[in-house]
Amino acid sequence: MTHDISGLEPVATFCGECDCGCPQLFVDPGASADRRIVLTDDFGQRVQMSADQFSSLVADAKNGKLDGIA
Question: Which helix (H) or strand (E) holds 56?
């Protein structure tokens, strides 16, 4: 599955070892501040959030709050 990623700045690809349309993380410099961070999944969906929201998610992951969910 391909995503329309034109204009997005790639940050990370999660997996990347297949051709299944791996989840990806982007920055959308043209988006409003509350939608600048973009996560795409391998089903063609996307989630947009602010940099502050994404920073909170990363902090929670680093602090172990997401451990055990997978």
Answer: helix 51-62
